[in-house]
Design brief:
The complex is a heterodimer of chains A (57) and B (416).
Chain A: E1 13-17, H1 20-28, E2 32-36, H2 46-54
Parallel strand pairs in A: 1-2
Chain B: H1 2-16, E1 20-27, H2 28-31, E2 39-42, H3 54-66, H4 73-81, E3 86-89, E4 95-96, E5 108-114, E6 120-124, H5 140-164, E7 167-168, H6 170-178, H7 188-205, H8 209-220, H9 225-238, E8 250-256, E9 259-264, E10 272-275, E11 280-283, E12 296-297, H10 301-304, H11 316-321, H12 330-338, E13 341-350, E14 356-362, H13 364-370, E15 375-381, E16 389-396, H14 399-412
Parallel strand pairs in B: 2-3, 4-6
Antiparallel strand pairs in B: 1-5, 1-7, 5-6, 8-9, 8-12, 9-10, 11-16, 13-14, 15-16
The chains are: A alpha+beta (57), B alpha+beta (416).
Chain lengths: 57, 416
């Protein structure tokens, strides 16, 4: 992994997880962006997520 | 949980080893002995008259006149409101029906036998396009066509199928997928293949040349003729999956125009329902979304077995027809449905997707976890009775059906 101090010195390459609008904004500014279509399990419903964990999903 | 994984594998083995064969066409009262005069089987989960949508009421009024249980449509409506008819889901009687899904004693039913397990499933004959009862049509033209299906076409088709010793259906689906069908909104190839198989037997067993000609023209003129056969196939191969303890696979998805319902193997015959959604689609000239009825029909049984919206990648043409985007995007639908299914069907593959098997075995755990609801390709009926189809589109199964099912399923396993 490169030194943090050099992170912003070259062209940015971004992996975006979650809200797609962040990726779209970066893309519009010419930033190379890969969007990962991800949402929390069960849409963030903690009770259902816990149930899923017990059911082995 | 190991119990669930084993149960799901057992269910999938039953689904994938099913051998559905179209064996006959017989009157509904012979196919379903429990069906009596005054009983009307409909699409979707249970519903009573007051909550039915316009097309469902229109079809019920029409079928009551056709069966001779009412003098006219107005009389039929009065009798329905007064409780003279008993309404039950097709699914409770080994049957399925497209859109409104009317099944009554005298209707000719396609008989699909699952040779592996010996069970049978039934579906009415597809009426063709235009004004038809499955979309709520109920005028003289609609009723006359149904009388012809009952008195002439159905018996002729039954004779032909019997003389052939039955028509194996899995190979037709396999070929249809390679010819651009997804078996819900596009059945052009499978209908043609079926006609090619049936035509010699229809000719051999015909007793009237004019009626033979009319029968051949009827099949040839209906690109959706195979849909009802595919639905009977779907019911025949999913029923043996019912009632496996610990199985989280969906065994039926169905809509009555008011409620969407699903059944899950591990919770047996219980329905999990939620209000149906409005399809997102394209409309025929002169119609728009304000004319549309919400989602309806037992036809989502084809998505339950990995076809229809799940096999969109096989049918780029249908993506345009149902307003699902560019043809090049059709494969995305299939890949996404792969995220909520347990396996791929090695016998039903999509050449344009490097022979990917259609995504099969909807797991309620995966649906709830991903938030991805099953995609269904569907016709759109006019919201008023008696008008018919006004478009086609894509609709998603409501997520509350799956969250309810998951909670109940967990209860059956003592998990909370």
């Amino acid at each position: 992994m490169s030194d943090k101090s050099t992170l912003l010195q070259g062209p940015l390459k971004v992996i975006n997880i979650g809200l797609e609008s962040f990726a779209r904004d970066l893309d519009a500014q010419g930033v190379q962006t890969l969007h990962v279509d991800w949402t929390p399990p069960a849409g963030g419903d903690a009770k259902l997520a816990a149930l899923l964990a017990k059911l082995g999903s | 949980m190991e119990l669930i994984e084993k149960a799901n594998q057992a269910a999938l083995e039953r689904l994938l080893t099913g051998d559905p064969v179209l064996i006959d066409v017989i009157p509904a009262h012979e196919a379903i002995p429990a069906l009596e005069p005054g009983m009307i089987l409909h699409a979707g989960p249970p519903i009573e008259w007051d909550r039915m949508c316009g097309p469902m009421k229109g079809a019920i009024m029409g079928i009551a006149v056709l069966e001779g249980w009412a003098d006219d449509l107005g009389d039929a409506e009065r009798r329905a409101r007064a409780g003279d008819f008993d309404f039950h889901p097709n699914h409770h009687f080994d049957a399925v029906g497209p859109m409104t899904g009317m099944t009554t004693v005298s209707q000719p039913l396609l008989v699909v036998e699952n040779k592996t397990f010996g069970n049978r499933a039934y579906c009415a004959i597809n009426e063709g396009l235009g004004k038809v009862m499955r979309f709520g049509g109920n005028d003289a033209e609609v009723l006359d066509r149904l009388r012809w299906l009952k008195d002439s076409f159905g018996p002729a088709l039954g004779r032909a199928i019997r003389s052939m010793g039955g028509l194996p259906l899995k190979p037709i689906i396999a070929r249809g997928l390679s010819m651009g069908d997804e078996m819900h909104q596009r059945n052009v190839a499978c209908s043609g293949l079926t006609l090619r198989a049936l035509a010699p037997a229809l000719a051999d067993t015909a007793d009237d040349t004019a009626e033979l000609s009319r029968a051949l023209a009827f099949i040839a003129g209906n690109d959706q003729f195979f849909l009802n056969i595919a639905m009977g196939l779907g019911k025949a191969i999913t029923d043996p999956m019912n009632g496996i303890e610990g199985c989280s696979i969906v065994t039926a998805m169905s809509r009555n125009g008011t409620d969407f319902g699903i059944r899950v193997s591990g919770t047996s015959e219980q329905w999990f329902t939620a209000p149906v959604e409005m399809p997102d689609g394209l409309y025929f000239p002169g119609y728009s979304e304000k004319d549309a009825n919400p989602d309806m029909g037992d036809s989502a049984i084809v998505e339950t077995i990995g076809l229809g919206g799940f096999a969109m990648g096989a049918s780029p043409a249908v993506a345009g027809f149902v307003g699902a985007g560019a043809a090049s995007e059709a494969g995305h639908f299939t890949r996404r449905m792969g995220e909520i299914t347990v396996t791929e069907n090695a016998e039903w593959t999509i050449p344009a997707m490097d022979y990917l098997g259609v995504p099969t075995g909807i797991d309620i755990r995966l649906v709830v976890e991903t938030g991805l609801a099953p995609t269904i390709n569907t016709g759109i009926a006019h919201r008023e009775p008696g008008i018919g189809q006004v478009g086609a589109g894509v609709v998603r199964a409501p997520m509350p059906c799956f969250t309810q099912a998951l909670t109940t399923f967990a209860d059956t396993l003592g998990v909370s």
